[in-house]
Amino acid sequence: MEGIEELESRLLLQPWASVCFAESTLLAKAYFGDAGYALLLCDLSHMWYERTDTEIIQQRSKDLNKRLTAHASSFLNHLRSLMCPLLEGQPTSSTSFSCQLSPSALTLHVKSELSGMPFYWDFCCSVAPVEMISRHLVRPLMAMSLALQSQVQELASLLLQKDAEIEDFRESGAALSRERLKTEPFKEESFQQTFEDKTLPQACCLGDGRQFTSSLKQLYMAVTQQQARVACKRHWEASGDPESLEHISTQDLPIEPEPEEGKTGTQRTSVHCVQGTLVSSTQAQKAQLPMAKTKRKKAKGLFS
């Protein structure tokens, strides 16, 4: 059976999804456990939250579905089957959602079918406390911005190294076999100016509700996983209970896939925390791998 603390921690690890209810576009995340659920909704001005247990689910199902009698776990499984497709951008045609919201409360009405009979449900959310807004949105976004900045700096450094390598090939007499592949040397200042003039204005248009792309969802989960590990470690150090750290490390957090054979560290980037500083996986790997001398080979492929 899941407790309140575990329900909260598992909700934190869920990614945000953009959902539309008529004219309302909201960010949403939810976790459905064995004995309750937790739901978080946000319109970037307000955030609403609901957490339930089996007792609340059983009572609300009696109030809204007088002709249906089932255990709370059955209603919970049905709610999971209704909400998961919605959060994945695949709402079913047999289910309708409508939303009533105000700064202090939000009610998400659901109409569906269960065992061939009409099924109704209301997610009754109240305004979320400031600490929850910080934990689920502000702190992860700040960490994501630092991680992305570190990634951009590393990529810029890599481009400059590639330009130096290409220039060395050219000075040695190599030439491109296909002229269309020729590129201009990378200039970080002009790149930054172009980004601020063209890309940044588009990125600041938040009205479409698509703030989290699939890659940003992965980064968000990586950041919240790291934050959960740090919080659990602090709890373990304060309580002296090693089982809590082992629990969050092996059960609550999804296992990251192993890199495929033959792929280098630059092809797979994740977020690590070293002494409180966010760095990319390639930087962490560089710190661990010993320097090895490699013999320069004759240029092949693009250069003839």
Write up what this structure looks like.
The protein has helices spanning about 5-10, 55-65, 70-85, 130-170, 190-205, 215-240, 240-250, 280-290; strands spanning about 15-20, 25-30, 35-40, 45-55, 95-100, 105-115, 115-125, 270-275, 275-280. Helix 2 packs across helix 3 and helix 4 (about 130-170) packs across helix 6 (about 215-240). The chain is an alpha+beta fold and about 300 residues long. The chain is built from eight helices and nine strands. A seven-stranded antiparallel beta sheet has the order 1-2-3-4-7-6-5. The longest helix is centred in the middle third of the chain and has 42 residues, at about 130-170. A hairpin with a 2-residue loop joins strand 8 and strand 9. The radius of gyration is 25 Å and the shape is elongated. It has two domains: about 5-130, Dna Repair Protein Xrcc4, Chain: A, domain 1, CATH 2.170.210; about 135-255 and about 270-290, no CATH class.
